[in-house]
Amino acid sequence: MKLLLIVPHPDDEVYGASGTLMTYLEEGHVCGLVTLTHGEAGRTLGLCDGPEELSRMREVELAACLEVIGLPVHEQHAFPDKYLKDQPREPLIAVARDAMQRHQPEIVLTFPPNGSNGHPDHVTTHQVVKAAWDSLPEGQRPRLWYYASDTPPENEALLAQWLPPNTRHDVTRFVTRKLQAIGCHRSQALSTVDFMRKFPERITSETFYEVKS
């Protein structure tokens, strides 16, 4: 496998990496996604009632998004959305470690130490993926990438852990499909608007921080 994403929520795969996924898939590589929660604690925008209905809706949205991307390998887990930090760490670490060992990816992608935006689930996912990566024998570790932005956070706590990108992919040729994939996550329309307002350049340029051993 070329690239394995490990993220907490449906839609975490699409904003910053869908063009990169499309690039690798078009080149004939296998790529995959591990989603830790169903996103049931997210905003509904009046499209559904309650966490259970939102969970089902986001499952459908994610399936539609992955169909646009062309990503066939997806593993869905049911850890509680918004409360990953309160869960025992070892089961989460085991999920990440198992996925790395089974799929043998060349690259694993997840959130940076500050979670990009400080979201507790993003931060916890970073911590468990990093712990799983650290637990592998050195010769068996994949390359480790984090989502990264050229724009420094305004929040001082986030800025203290900011890692500027050192890897860039021009995904302009996939921009139409990327926007279509983003649009599949209808329930997350406010997140889409916020992303495009704050980081319009990341629609056509996907940027990452590669951890150097």
Short summary of the structure?
With 213 residues, this protein is an alpha/beta fold.
* The CATH topology: Rossmann fold
The mean pLDDT is: 97
Count of individual beta strands: 7
Residue share in helices? 25-40%
List the strand order in the largest sheet.
3-2-1-4-5-7-6
Distance between the termini: 21 Å
- Structurally, how many domains make up the residues? 1
Tell me the β content. 15-25%
Structural class: alpha/beta
CATH homology-level superfamily? LmbE-like
Question: What is the radius of gyration?
Answer: 16 Å
- What is the count of DSSP helices, taking H or I runs of 4+ residues? 7
Report the top-level CATH class: Alpha Beta
CATH architecture name: 3-Layer(aba) Sandwich
Q: What can be said about the biggest beta sheet?
A: 7 strands, mixed
Poorly predicted regions are none
